[in-house]
Amino acid sequence: MKNISLYIDLVFCIIVLPLMALIFPVERWFHNFQWYVIAVGTWLLFLYVLNRIVTVPLIFKKTRERVIGVMIFLISISITYWFATIQLYVPKEGTNPFDYGIVRILPSIQPYQQAVWSLFVIVETFSFAVGLLTQANMQKAKRRAVEAERDKAEIELYKAQIKPHFMFNTLNSLYGLFLTQDEKALVALEEYISMLRYIHVSSHRDFAPISDEVDYIRQYIGLQSLRLNEMTTVHTDIEVENYRLQVPPMLLVTFVENCFKHGVSPIEESKIIIRLIEKDGLLTFSTENRIFPVKRIGEHMGIENCKKRLNLLYSERHSLNIENDGDYFYVKLSIKL
Asked: CB within 8 A of 98, min separation 6: which ones?
């Protein structure tokens, strides 16, 4: 679509606009007022490019950018008005209003002034039409890309929940709790079922309340903790001011899952730290864990999917720093919700 738009722009600027201008006696005006014709023509071409590159894209952004786009449009009208009010000559009294074959709709407006406004309307209409069509297609393409990445990430995360080692470890822990008649057994089973339900429900949504995501993370940590011995400690710090804020479902848990994949050892001491802080709409999420060499097929796929989703959803409103010093793995993510 980008190349097609470029071809349309070239056709308009090189062919369509000059042909529209030839409807008027441009040749006579150029002979008598060369500087004026060149100035107006340059302004109209600049205005077309300005609308396509700046004005129309601003309309599709936030309120502040939209205001700037409207201001640019009003300024362009003012500049065009200035061109149209330049007095090139004073018509003689009794001049035929149909001189030079041009219909004078408003007798008080000179033919060259009518030409300026007519070409201005043509440029504005065409540039906005092409620009709006281009932006609409870009928005659709961006949404399709977001949905594709979301589906891909959801599938991978769902596989992580049902793959054999996860199922075996979790069910084995649940079995042990039930066998010893531990009071946490039913609660753990309910959390496990709730997690599977959340995965199923959130697969149909682009965003979910941060409260649901926090509950899911806590349940995931709780279930994973069932299989840990005294060598591993898990520290969580979750503080959220506005639980109604929306976040992409199952995005943060990818980094939590990574902690338990690579930061747990049955014979060496390790500590997992997970922090999630939301204040004034700024979400700060961080994890820290030791690294124990474990090779798994597609182990980096989840994090790569998260990076793509973040770039698509929060292109300039997030920062993600991942550090690996060989002993510890650090993740710090900030999102302006």
From this structure: 104
Is the pTM higher than 0.85? The answer reads no
- Domain 163-336 has what CATH class? alpha beta
**Cα 143 to Cα 155: distance, rounded to the nearest angstrom:** 18
Domain range annotation of the chain = 2-141, 163-336
- Helices (DSSP H) in 97-209: which residue ranges? 111-162, 164-179, 185-202
| Buried b / exposed e along 284-322 (16+ C-beta atoms within 10 A) | ebbbbbbeeeeeeeeeebbbebbebbbebbbeeebebee
User: What confidence tens digit (pLDDT) does each residue in 210-255 have?
Assistant: 999 999 899 889 888 877 888 999 999 999 999 999 998 888 988 9
- Model confidence pLDDT, tens digit, residues 183-219: 778 878 887 788 778 877 776 777 889 999 999 899 8
